[in-house]
């Protein structure tokens, strides 16, 4: 198999299935398989489980570029779009669980939450940011937007930061886990910053989109 | 206990605790024999099992109590970890017997008392109380215990005693959650004297007719049903009568989020979430959020304690 075939028939299907594992685990708990359960507060459990999955996949999405350069795998970028779309899907699902199951479609309460509760404000903002990124993730949009595509998709950094802040502010007191996420995100974004600063200026100016850190590759 | 025939069946009677616990005891005994039996064989065993008690319908809600599993498997007890499943997972090795409680401060009777000394004069009663966590979930729990006021009176607090302060055991070896400073250990809570003397305030030693499980604050804890759950301090080793308002654990941790009073109040939001509603645990995916009541539904009994106080300021 050549690279194209390996991505098409092996890597991408594997990543696709892996991204469905969290939802499968959740369902297996929900249906009580292997004596598992969603615990005494299944709504909260589901909400947190899906939210954390969204954050996890978003982090993995941001890991693609560092892996691409550090491991020297130029083609790994081909799985990035799928990861990003899964992160968005889980974020959207997290939001739906929140409004449908947790808030019981109380839209007044939802608006109040968004306005009054900073952790919900930033979480909602992160979701809003991801929407145009998901919409413009197609090859067609990529071609149409050209260089602007890349500028637009750098907003994913903002979404990730807001996502981690959302988690940090939501936690009652034990912030150890949110801080781990913050640390990982700092490394992921720090890598990009260092790479950018290190790159000699003229070279950067001459680089085509495909040579820069976040360039889209046809997938 | 003799009772006249009644059509009103208390929910706690549906599953006879005897039946429920005989299984648990068998399992626990088997585990103890296999795992810890050798180590503790000649040490005094807790007075485990059933407690003698009477029911107190006057102070009990008619609502359906949560299951034993939910009450003992889903709660906050940061000494054993910050996840709500941690207490059950990490408290099983905890030794709640023998136990003693030190009484000090502005009182005539002071000293260190064994748990048996503490409990001896008091007849145990079951009260089914609503329990409202500050995290906006709630349960209904059949606690066993006696009025805090009766215990306080025994120590004859002096006129200088304006507050009573409770301290939880500090023992990081047994309480793994204390190895990390999530809170400023040991956990301290307190009540104003008139709150402590209120008949609803309760010293608890059991639940569902049974000795309190470790994860619920064995062997001795407080229950103040009109306040958020974190006021109801667990595994108490010290009771101090003091002149000044105690520096309570959550209040010290984040004073703008957790006040000293912590009365359940739907009108005063937690800075990060609403307190207007709560989710009653046990309803599964269909659990509807219900309105939170002022003073957790005990306003008729306790609202007068706070007459003239601005409850948005003294939250």
Describe this structure in words.
The complex is a heterodimer of chains A (219) and B (315). Chain A has 219 residues and is mainly α. Chain A has one domain (3-198): Four Helix Bundle (Hemerythrin (Met), subunit A), CATH 1.20.120. Chain A is built from 10 helices and no strands. In chain A, helix 2 (42-70) packs antiparallel against helix 3. Chain A starts with a helix and ends in a 13-residue tail after the last helix. The relative contact order of chain A is 0.10. With 315 residues, chain B is an alpha+beta fold. Chain B has a single domain (51-306), classed as Oxidoreductase, molybdopterin-binding domain (Sulfite Oxidase, Chain A, domain 2). Chain B has 8 helices and 13 strands. In chain B, the strands form 2 sheets. In chain B, strands 1, 4, 5, 8, 9, 10, 12 and 13 form an 8-stranded mixed beta sheet that branches. The radius of gyration of chain B is 19 Å and the shape is globular. The chains are: A mainly alpha (219), B alpha+beta (315). The interface between A and B is medium-sized, with 21 and 28 residues.
Give the tally of structural domains of chain A: 1
Our Rg estimate of chain B from Cα atoms comes to 19 Å
Helix fraction of chain A, binned, reads: over 70%
Strand content of chain B: 15-25%
Spatial separation of the terminal alpha carbons of chain A: 17 Å
* Oligomerization: heterodimer
The largest interface is: A-B, 21 and 28 residues
- How many β strands of chain A by DSSP? 0
Helix-strand pattern of chain B, N to C? HEHHEEHEEHEEHEEEEHEEH
Query: What's the level 1 CATH class of chain A?
Result: Mainly Alpha
Rough outline of chain B: globular
Summed up, the domain count of chain B is 1
Most strands sheet of chain A? none
Derived structural class of chain B: alpha+beta
Unreliable segments of chain A (pLDDT under 50, ≥5 consecutive)?
203-216
Give the CATH architecture of chain B.
Alpha-Beta Complex
Element-by-element helix/strand order of chain A: HHHHHHHHHH
How much of the sequence lies in strands of chain A comes to under 5%
* Broad CATH class of chain B: Alpha Beta
């Amino acid at each position: 198999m050549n690279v194209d075939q390996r991505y098409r028939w092996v890597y991408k299907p594997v990543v696709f299935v892996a991204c469905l594992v969290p939802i499968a685990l959740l369902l297996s708990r929900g249906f009580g398989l292997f004596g598992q359960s969603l615990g005494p507060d299944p709504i909260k459990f589901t909400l947190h489980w899906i939210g954390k999955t969204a954050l996890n996949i978003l982090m993995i999405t941001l890991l693609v570029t560092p892996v691409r350069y550090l491991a020297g795998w130029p083609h790994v970028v081909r799985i990035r779009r799928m990861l990003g779309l899964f992160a968005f899907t889980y974020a959207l699902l997290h939001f739906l669980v929140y409004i449908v199951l947790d808030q019981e479609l109380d839209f007044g309460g939802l608006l109040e939450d968004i306005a009054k509760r900073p952790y919900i404000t930033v979480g909602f903002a992160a979701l809003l940011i991801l929407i145009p990124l998901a919409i413009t993730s197609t090859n067609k949009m990529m071609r149409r937007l050209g260089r602007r595509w890349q500028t637009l998709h750098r907003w994913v950094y903002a979404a990730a930061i807001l996502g981690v802040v959302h988690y940090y502010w939501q936690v009652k007191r034990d912030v150890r886990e949110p801080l781990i996420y913050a640390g990982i995100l700092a490394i992921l974004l720090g890598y990009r910053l260092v790479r950018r600063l290190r790159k000699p200026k003229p070279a950067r100016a001459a680089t085509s989109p495909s040579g820069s850190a976040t360039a889209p590759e046809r997938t | 206990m003799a009772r006249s025939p009644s059509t009103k069946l208390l929910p706690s009677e549906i599953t006879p605790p005897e039946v429920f616990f005989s299984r648990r005891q068998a399992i626990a005994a088997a585990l103890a024999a296999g795992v810890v039996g050798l180590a503790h064989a000649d040490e005094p065993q807790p007075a485990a099992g059933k407690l003698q008690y009477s029911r107190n319908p006057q102070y009990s809600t008619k609502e359906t109590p949560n299951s034993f599993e939910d009450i003992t498997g889903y709660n906050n007890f940061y000494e054993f970890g910050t996840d709500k499943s941690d207490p059950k997972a990490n408290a099983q090795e905890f030794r709640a017997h023998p136990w003693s409680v030190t009484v000090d401060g502005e009182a005539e009777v002071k000293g260190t008392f064994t748990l048996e000394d503490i409990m001896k004069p008091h007849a145990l009663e079951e009260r089914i109380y609503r329990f409202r966590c500050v995290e906006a979930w709630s349960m209904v729990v059949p606690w066993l215990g006696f009025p805090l006021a009766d215990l306080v009176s025994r120590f004859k607090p002096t006129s200088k005693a304006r507050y009573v302060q409770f301290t939880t055991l500090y023992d990081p070896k047994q309480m793994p959650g204390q190895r990390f400073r999530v809170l400023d250990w040991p956990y301290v809570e307190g009540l104003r004297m008139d709150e402590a003397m209120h008949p609803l305030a309760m010293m608890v030693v059991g639940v569902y007719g049974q000795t309190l499980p470790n994860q619920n604050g064995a062997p001795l804890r407080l229950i103040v049903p009109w306040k958020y759950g974190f006021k109801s301090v667990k595994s108490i080793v010290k009771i101090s009568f003091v002149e000044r308002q105690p520096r309570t654990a959550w209040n010290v941790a984040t004073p703008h989020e957790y006040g000293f009073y912590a009365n359940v109040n739907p009108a005063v939001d937690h800075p990060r979430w609403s307190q207007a509603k709560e989710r009653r645990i046990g309803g599964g995916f269909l659990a509807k959020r219900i309105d939170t009541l002022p003073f957790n539904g005990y306003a008729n009994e306790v609202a007068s304690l706070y007459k003239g106080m601005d409850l948005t300021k003294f939250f």
